[in-house]
Write a structure and sequence with these properties.
Elements lengths: L14 E5 L7 E7 L2 E10 L13 E8 L17 H15 L11 E10 L4 H22 L12 E9 L2 E4 L3 H4 L4 E8 L4 E8 L6 H18 L5
Parallel strand pairs: 4-5
Antiparallel strand pairs: 1-2, 2-3, 3-5, 6-7, 6-8, 8-9
């Protein structure tokens, strides 16, 4: 098989970051992974949800959205309520980012991570996790500098990537054309110490073998380890 720009099956798309993309956010960045561009902005709220009140623990949550012209055909704004797909994605992002830090270490405050897709070309949820994690570290650093945290909490890096089976071959970091025609597509979220946080995998045509799953897992680990270089 051939991929766009002759990309190898085990290679990531070009990745770049633009820090402080939204000056009004407490921390923000624009992450570009190939044609997928996502703004990750963080707002710090000096309160927590009712179920955490007076617990001493903080909270990290996420919201996800896609701009109308992010896709080839206009994406309808979600007015009056988010779709099931959107809820599923933002819950995945929130679960993943909460793995990064002991919530007791951030005090009774909420770190709200907004992930807005400017351009969608596959892998928007994984780009949101990778970018959101970097922005989360940045906002914690700012809280320390601003005197709101006494010291920097211990952070466990987090990153995510998509993998799929195309024409019987495992491929890393799918763009939209690949994702829409893949026999299997999967999303992997990993912590910086090599442990898995979440794996989502779905067969689109016929069931896939354990060997195919292991091939996808190996590719995901390779790609995520490359993404962790962004933390340096």
């Amino acid at each position: 098989m051939s991929r766009f720009q002759n990309r190898a099956p085990d290679s990531l798309r070009d990745v770049s970051l633009v820090w402080d993309f939204q000056p009004g956010a407490d921390a923000s960045l624009l992450i570009r992974m190939g044609g997928t561009h996502v703004i990750c902005g963080i707002s710090v709220e000096e309160k927590v949800p009712p179920f955490l009140k007076d617990s001493g623990k903080g909270w990290i949550t996420a919201e996800y959205g896609m701009l109308p012209c992010a896709t080839n055909s206009r994406y309808r704004r979600e007015i009056g309520g988010r779709s099931g797909r959107t809820y599923e994605i933002q819950r995945l992002i929130g679960r993943s980012l909460r793995m990064m830090v002991d919530l007791n270490a951030i005090g009774e405050r909420t770190l709200r991570v907004d992930c807005d897709v400017l351009n969608a070309d596959g892998g928007t949820r994984t780009a949101s996790i990778t970018g959101g994690a970097l922005a989360l570290r940045h906002v914690l650093q700012k809280l320390v500098v601003g005197g709101k945290l006494a010291e920097m909490p211990k952070i466990l890096p987090v990153a995510a990537i998509s993998v799929g089976i195309i024409d019987g071959e495992a491929c890393l970091d799918l763009d939209y054309s690949e994702d829409s025609s893949a026999e299997v597509d999967a999303n992997f979220v990993m912590s910086g110490d090599g442990r898995w946080i979440e794996i989502q995998s779905t067969a689109e045509g016929t069931p896939f073998s354990p060997e195919s799953f292991m091939a996808m897992t190996a590719l995901a680990e390779k790609g995520i380890q490359e993404l962790f270089q962004l933390w340096k």
